[in-house]
């Protein structure tokens, strides 16, 4: 893999520590998962990996990427600080000149912590009220849950058991090493309304006082100074398991939807719907363009995938008045071909390449279902390197997988990272440039009984789910027994010859 564009000493973008817990949620009976820079879900099919991934996507939309003060209004208001003046600050926060001057003074005071209570009154009121009177957040969450899961009521998410009084619970918490930030939970039974509770720490410390940069410099470096109050909205990307078919047919699907959206095109039958994650994925494809400035720390990963795995380029062909068409140009062929004529490997990786080149930035969240689908084992290890490169660039990544090859390469990248951390120079010549640390990776095993367990990294064993070991042992025993039987039969045949 080509050399990473990020320094090995560069720290990953500061995330709050986020923990999400569920009970009786779809096929999941009980799970508590803390999100890492790379979070991996493994386990048999129909055990809840997609359910939990979709829940993360939903909560990301509600809480703006799990920031310190996770409200859209906060982001929009703080964006106006780019006016770069005391007058602009006052207008942005709808505050008085005295209040604006007071904020400037606090930012410029050496050694003085800057806390939640130092924020403008409008911001404090907005955030505190939203969590204390949490029915508004609960209402937004219910709407987004219904949209993302394509359900009529969140009651449909309650685990189906013989006991119909089971209560579903969703809890999300954000904290840092030295302070709690906020938490939010929603409970629901099949026969009752949702109950919601929220808490916001009104003593949050944004600046300890060691980062005294002055007012103008504070505005210039707002993302670094106010982690979680970033001026840029954190985007979420979900690559569903069905992405190959969608890539090959999205233009036809979009055209059909638009043509049927006119009054003459409306049918008396019930209109089928997509889940929110599928709809958002298709929308990103339909609206895709590469006119914006790509992030070099992410975009180079697309070039590497094309070179090392696809042996060709993924191209976008704008169509006047239509939807973009995506093509594949093999390295040694003169003309590009439509994705309907390429291998499933190409159509599987095409959206990842496109989003790496024209969408994803540090601080965003990328969720990929089964990134190993339709890939040769060697290509699966390249995907592990891509995931590590995203982590190094500051992108939060969540994947579901059934691939032992992917897990083994992730384990190797952790070993490389730990050796680098300990200053072992020998690893520089024998290892790829992308790497991981054990604390950056969380692997979670979804089991058939609905319980989700954490799989810790082991320096010797790596990351090995128990059911993988069971399958390997069963295959080994079977092969030994069959080999013994075959040898016995061959001996009998030789005796008769």
Please outline what is shown here.
Helix content is about 40%, strand content about 20%.
User: How many structurally independent domains?
Assistant: 2
Gross morphology: globular
Give a count of the beta strands, DSSP E runs of length 2 or more: 16
In which range does the helix fraction lie? 40-55%
Outline the structure in words.
With 497 residues, the protein is of the alpha/beta class. It has two domains: 29-65 and 235-464, 3-Layer(aba) Sandwich (Rossmann fold); 68-225, no CATH class. Mean pLDDT is 80; it is low at 1-13, 72-94 and 219-231. The chain contains 16 helices and 16 strands.
Annotation keywords:
2 domains; 6-stranded mixed β-sheet; alpha/beta; 497 residues; disordered N terminus; 16 helices; Rossmann fold
Give the helices and strands, then pairings.
Elements: E1 17-25, E2 28-34, E3 38-42, H1 49-62, H2 72-79, H3 86-92, H4 97-108, E4 114-115, H5 121-132, H6 135-149, E5 168-176, E6 179-188, E7 195-200, E8 205-207, H7 215-220, H8 222-225, E9 236-239, H9 243-259, H10 276-286, H11 296-310, E10 312-317, E11 325-330, E12 337-338, H12 344-358, E13 365-369, H13 377-393, E14 396-400, H14 404-421, H15 427-430, E15 441-446, E16 452-455, H16 466-496
Parallel strand pairs: 3-14, 3-15, 9-13, 13-14
Antiparallel strand pairs: 1-2, 1-5, 4-8, 5-6, 6-7, 10-11, 11-12, 15-16
Helix pairs in contact: 1-6, 3-4, 9-12, 11-12, 11-13, 13-14
């Amino acid at each position: 893999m080509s050399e990473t564009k990020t320094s090995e000493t560069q720290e990953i973008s500061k995330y709050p520590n986020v923990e999400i817990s569920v009970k009786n949620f779809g096929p999941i009976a009980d799970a508590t998962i803390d999100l890492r820079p790379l979070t991996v879900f493994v386990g048999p099919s129909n055990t809840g990996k997609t359910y939990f991934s979709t829940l993360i996507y939903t909560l990301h939309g509600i809480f703006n990427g799990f920031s310190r003060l996770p409200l859209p209004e906060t982001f929009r208001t703080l964006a106006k600080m780019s006016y770069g003046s005391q007058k602009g600050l006052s207008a942005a926060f709808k505050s008085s000149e005295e209040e604006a001057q007071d904020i400037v003074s606090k930012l410029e005071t050496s050694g003085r912590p800057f806390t939640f209570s130092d924020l403008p009154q409008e911001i404090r009121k907005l955030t505190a009220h939203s969590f204390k009177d949490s029915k508004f957040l609960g209402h937004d969450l219910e709407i987004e849950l219904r949209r993302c899961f394509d359900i009529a009521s969140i009651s449909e998410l309650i685990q189906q058991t013989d006991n119909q009084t089971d209560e579903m619970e969703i809890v999300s918490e954000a904290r840092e090493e030295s302070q709690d930030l906020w938490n939010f939970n929603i409970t629901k039974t099949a026969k009752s309304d949702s109950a919601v509770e929220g808490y916001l720490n009104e003593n949050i410390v944004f600046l300890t006082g060691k980062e005294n940069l002055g007012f103008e410099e504070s505005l210039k470096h707002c993302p670094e100074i106010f982690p979680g109050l970033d001026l840029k909205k954190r985007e979420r990307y979900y690559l569903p398991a069905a992405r190959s078919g969608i890539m090959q047919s999205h233009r036809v699907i979009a055209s059909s939807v638009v043509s049927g959206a006119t009054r003459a095109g409306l049918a008396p039958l019930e209109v089928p719907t997509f889940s929110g994650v599928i709809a958002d994925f298709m929308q990103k494809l339909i609206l895709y363009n590469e006119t914006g400035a790509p992030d070099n720390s992410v975009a180079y990963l697309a070039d590497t995938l094309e070179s090392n795995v696809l042996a060709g380029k993924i191209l976008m062909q704008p169509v006047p008045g239509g939807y973009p068409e995506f093509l594949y140009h093999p390295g040694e062929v003169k003309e590009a071909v439509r994705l309907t004529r390429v291998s499933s490997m190409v159509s599987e990786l095409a959206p990842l390449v496109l989003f790496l080149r024209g969408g994803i930035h540090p601080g965003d969240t990328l969720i990929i279902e089964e990134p190993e689908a339709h890939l040769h084992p060697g290509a699966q290890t390249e995907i592990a390197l891509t995931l590590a490169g995203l982590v190094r660039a500051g992108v939060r990544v969540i994947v579901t997988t059934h691939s032992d090859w992917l897990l083994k390469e992730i384990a190797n990248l952790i070993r490389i990272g730990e050796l680098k951390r300990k200053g072992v120079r020998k690893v520089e010549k024998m290892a790829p440039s992308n790497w991981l640390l054990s604390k950056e990776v969380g692997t979670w095993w979804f089991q058939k009984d609905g319980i989700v367990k954490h799989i810790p990294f082991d320096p010797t064993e790596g990351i090995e789910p128990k059911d993988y070991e069971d399958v390997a042992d069963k295959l080994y025993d079977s092969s030994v027994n069959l080999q013994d039987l075959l040898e016995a039969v061959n001996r009998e045949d030789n005796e008769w010859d």
